[in-house]
Design a protein that fits this description.
Blueprint (H helix, E strand, L loop, with lengths): L2 H5 L9 E5 L3 H12 L3 E6 L9 E2 L10 H4 L4 E4 L10 H12 L4 E7 L10 E2 L10 H15 L4 E6 L1 E3 L5 H7 L4 E3 L7 E3 H16 L6 E3 L8 H12 L6 E3 H5 L4 H5 L6 E2 L2 H6 L9 H12 L2
Parallel strand pairs: 1-2, 1-4, 2-3, 4-5, 5-7, 6-13, 7-11, 8-10, 9-12
Length: about 300
C-alpha cells in the first residue's frame, strides 16, 4: 500500500540512518515509508511485542536503547509525548547520546494546540503560541526544551491526525458519531500519509538550506465536524445521527472530549505547501476519507 508514497518520495542519502523515537500511529508510517525507500531505519516502542519494535525505549521503566544501536544516526524523529510533569522523555533520558550523534536533521512532532484559541481565525507559524490546555502547555514546554538542545531541529505542528483504521468512518460504522452543532467551530486535520511524506520532504528541503524551525503540517480545509460526519456517512451509505446543539451535548461530555471544543482555529499550511513546495496527497477530508474507505476495505 506504500507504492504511491514511494513514487512521490525521495530516499535519504545511502549512508543515512533514521531513528524514530515512539513508533505509534505516525511514527510507524514514517518508518514504513523510509524503509520502503531503502533506507536504514530503527523504530522504538515500549514493548518488544509491539508492531515495528526494532529497539525498546520506555522512560517509565528506564529501558533505554542500547548505545550501539544509536551509533551513526543521521536523522531523528521524536513522536513521544511529554511526561506527566511536562518534561520531554527523550531529552531527559537520551540527550547525552543525541549530542554525540552525527545528526543532520531532527524532527519533533508537536501539536497545533500550542496556538491556543484564535476564535476561528487563521494561524501561521508567525503567531505566538498561547496554549490554554494543560496538554498543550506541556507540548510547548517540550518544544522549548528541544530548541535549547542546539540540535538541527524542525518542529512539525500537527492538528487532528487521521488515517486508515483511525478515522470518522469507524465511529460512523460503530454508531458512535455525533452531529454536534456549534456554529462557527472548525477543526483542522492531516492525513497520516501526508505526515510521512511531508517529513521526508522537509528533510530534503533542509539539506538545501530551507529549514524554518516551525512548520504547520495541515490540510487545506479546516471544517466543522458535522460536515466530515455527513460525508463519511454518505460514503458508507449510513443515515445521519440527529443534530444536537453543543450546549446540550457538552453536559454529557468527558473533560477530555469537552476540551477539544474549547478552542477554535484554522491552521495555515502556506509555509509548507507554498514556500517549501510540498504537495498534499490529501488536501481535504473528502480525499482523505476516500483513501481510508479503500484501505480499510469498507
Amino acid at each position: 500500500m506504500l507504492t504511491a508514497l514511494v513514487k512521490r518520495s525521495k530516499p535519504l542519502p545511502s549512508n543515512s540512518k533514521l531513528l524514530i523515537l515512539g513508533g505509534g500511529f505516525s511514527g510507524q508510517r514514517i518508518a514504513a515509508l523510509t524503509k520502503a525507500l531503502g533506507n536504514n531505519v530503527l523504530c522504538t516502542r515500549r514493548e518488544a511485542s509491539k508492531p515495528g519494535a526494532d529497539i525498546i525505549f520506555d522512560s517509565r521503566t528506564q529501558q533505554l536503547p542500547p548505545k550501539e544501536a544509536l551509533e551513526g544516526v543521521t536523522h531523528l524523529v521524536s513522536c513521544i509525548p511529554p511526561s506527566e510533569d511536562g518534561t520531554d522523555p527523550v531529552i531527559t533520558n537520551l540527550i547525552e547520546h543525541l549530542k554525540v550523534m552525527p545528526l543532520e536533521w531532527v524532527g519533533y512532532l508537536s501539536t497545533t494546540g500550542v496556538y491556543g484559541d484564535s476564535k476561528g481565525d487563521w494561524v501561521t507559524e508567525k503567531d505566538h503560541p498561547r496554549p490554554t490546555l494543560l496538554r498543550s502547555k506541556r507540548r510547548l514546554a517540550c518544544e522549548e526544551a528541544w530548541k535549547a538542545t542546539g540540535l538541527p531541529l524542525q518542529i512539525l505542528r500537527l492538528p487532528g491526525i487521521y488515517g486508515p483504521g483511525r478515522s470518522v468512518l469507524q465511529s460512523v460504522l460503530n454508531g458512535n458519531s455525533k452531529m454536534i452543532d456549534k456554529p462557527g467551530q472548525v477543526f483542522s486535520r492531516i492525513h497520516l500519509d501526508d505526515i510521512a511524506c511531508a517529513t521526508l520532504h522537509l528533510i530534503h528541503q533542509a539539506k538545501i538550506g530551507q529549514r524554518p524551525t516551525v512548520i504547520n503540517v495541515a490540510d487545506d480545509i479546516p471544517i466543522a465536524n458535522t460536515e466530515v460526519i455527513r460525508y463519511a456517512s454518505k460514503l458508507l451509505g449510513r443515515s445521519l445521527p440527529p443534530v444536537e446543539p453543543f450546549e446540550s451535548a457538552a453536559t454529557k461530555m468527558s473533560p477530555m472530549a469537552l476540551s477539544f471544543w474549547q478552542e477554535n482555529r484554522r491552521i495555515s499550511n502556506k509555509l509548507l505547501c507554498k514556500d517549501l513546495g510540498y504537495t498534499l496527497i490529501h488536501p481535504d477530508y473528502q480525499s482523505g476519507l476516500k483513501d481510508c474507505l479503500l484501505k480499510d476495505g469498507l
